[in-house]
Specification:
The chain is mostly helical and 288 residues long. It has one domain. 76% of the residues lie in helices and 0% in strands. It is built from ten helices and no strands. Helix 1 packs antiparallel against helix 6 and helix 5 runs antiparallel to helix 6. The longest helix has 33 residues. It is globular.
């Protein structure tokens, strides 16, 4: 059950982060993307994002079933409606998850509608993302401390979504470089990326400090500390690639192939970092 829960967290977090980041990118860069949005490429992207929204909903339901099974210490409980009802109605996680599932369903309906407003859709996706914050380690604490940690996690998720979703959009756009001013978009996104990286680092450090009581969890090289170290190393690799992308974007002749390879590699590092985060969410930050 534990392995299944880690997998569900990875799939669900990945889907929601990409949806929000891609939606935010399309709103912020709307003027630069007019030719792309008017092309057939937009339809393909919309269909992909619609499927991703469906994946998010299915993985959210699987997450609920696995949580119920874990609480009951019996995998059959995940298929028992009365047990699922008890989890949804009588636990903090369940109360949050009712709202989360409702938002996910609404996001899927909007993704299937051609008349949905991009900003309205982004608002629902954003709320969907923010309802992931209370089901993390922040729920360990009561009162003001817990509320501040949840708020900090919300900011952290916004930063991560903007970075990863933006990378997804760059990968898509670099396959159709003639439709946009690639150089301008890359340079503008890298400027936004610096702010997001700073937000991710600061909020990540606050999380670690609040959960472990120190600058780094103890023991440093096993359990929570070891996985956190892997995540930090992967994020540093992503940051190095982001700096490389900015240098490539300033070249006299834009090296589209090299940029495409670099962005895809950065996406892969982002996926690996997300896998580490999915594991971190199931580990105690301090030894029991």
């Amino acid at each position: 059950m534990q392995e299944g829960l880690i997998l569900c967290r990875f799939v669900h977090f990945g889907a929601v982060l990409l949806l929000v980041g891609a939606g935010l990118f399309r709103v912020l860069f709307a003027r630069s993307l007019r030719a792309f949005e008017a092309s057939q490429k937009r339809g393909r992207l919309d269909r992909y994002l619609q499927r991703l929204t469906a994946v998010a909903l299915v993985s959210a339901l699987c997450w609920l079933m696995l949580t119920a099974a874990s609480m009951a210490d019996d995998w059959r409980a995940g298929f028992d409606l009365s047990t699922l009802g008890l989890v949804l109605g009588n636990t903090f996680y369940g109360h949050v998850w009712v709202a989360h599932l409702g938002l996910n369903l609404l996001a899927l309906i909007l993704a299937s509608s051609k008349d949905a407003s991009a900003r309205g859709h982004l608002l629902i996706q954003g709320l969907l993302l923010l309802t992931l914050a209370p089901v993390g380690h922040g729920a360990m604490f009561d009162g003001l401390r817990g509320q501040l940690l949840i708020l900090n996690q919300m900011l952290h998720l916004i930063g991560v979504a903007t970075w990863l979703g933006g990378l997804l959009m760059l990968a898509v756009l670099l396959n159709s470089p003639s439709l946009i001013d690639v150089r301008a978009v890359l340079l503008r996104f890298s400027g936004l990326g610096y702010a997001m990286v700073a937000l991710i680092i600061v909020t990540g450090w606050v999380n670690v400090r609040a959960l472990s009581g120190g600058l780094w969890p103890e023991p440093a090289f096993s359990g929570f500390g070891a996985v956190l170290g892997v995540k930090v190393a992967l994020v540093l690799c992503m940051l190095a690639l982001a700096l490389l992308n900015r240098c490539l974007a300033r070249a006299r002749v834009l090296p589209v192939l090299a940029l495409r390879s670099s962005v895809v590699l950065e996406c892969l590092f982002g996926g690996a970092a997300l896998a580490a985060v999915s594991l971190l969410g199931t580990l105690p930050p301090m030894p029991g």
